Amino acid sequence: MRGNPTEPEKRLWRHLSNSQLDGHKFRRQAVIHGWIADFLCPRKGLIVKVDGDTHEPVADARRDAALAALGYRVVRVTNGEVMGNMDGVLRLLRETLETMPDRRAPHPNPSPEGEGPELAVPFAGRQPIMGFED
């Protein structure tokens, strides 16, 4: 994991932290099958990647496809978009989240007291995708 977020990542995090984006909880620097997502909304499965000046479009496309096969959706924004058009970035994220169903369905047999761990095993039984093993 990277220890030092970039300035655009810090700026975007100020808008995503503490469920500020329409109540959606985000985590930063989330590890997903060996890949570090800049930001992840676990409930929706939305990954937000802030692309800097140097990135690998072919590798990015391959990784995005592998994550999509695992049920995630990746939205990429550039450093310039975050620094110069935060309203547009936040609008894009809101619109994307609105179209996505929740990944966690309610448990079919909830505890009568409403207690107990909340478990989600979204990929049980699937074979790992090459290069993204746990």
Automatic annotation (TrEMBL):
InterPro entries: DUF559, Endonuclease_DUF559_bact, Restrct_endonuc-II-like
Chain ranges of the DUF559 domain: 1-97
Signal peptide: none
Record region (Disordered): 99-134
Domain of life of the native organism: Bacteria
PANTHER family, per database record: BLL0828 PROTEIN (PTHR38590:SF1)
Protein's name according to its UniProt entry: DUF559 domain-containing protein
Higher taxonomy: Bacteria, Pseudomonadati, Pseudomonadota, Alphaproteobacteria, Sphingomonadales
